[in-house]
Design brief:
71 residues; mainly beta; 7-stranded antiparallel beta sheet
């Protein structure tokens, strides 16, 4: 499938169906990405460290964001 699987110290995980980047792992820190039906990033989560949600309007313009850092 010739999808990129790594860059430097990072390991990349891509969806075999869409080719979208689903996750990045560097050492013990893993970050996951979620997408909506239009292929736009809808969520980003990094384990117990960070999470973010993105919202889009009916014209698919980004209009909102919620983020949380965990301690």
């Amino acid at each position: 499938d010739s999808l990129l699987t790594g860059a430097g110290m990072a390991t990349l995980t891509c969806s075999p169906d869409s080719g979208f980047l689903m996750g990045v792992t560097v050492g013990s820190v893993a970050t996951a990405f979620g997408y909506n039906g239009y292929g736009e990033v809808e969520s980003v989560a990094s384990g117990a460290l960070y999470s973010e949600g993105l919202q889009y309007d009916s014209a698919q313009r980004g209009w909102g964001r919620s983020a949380k850092w965990y301690s």
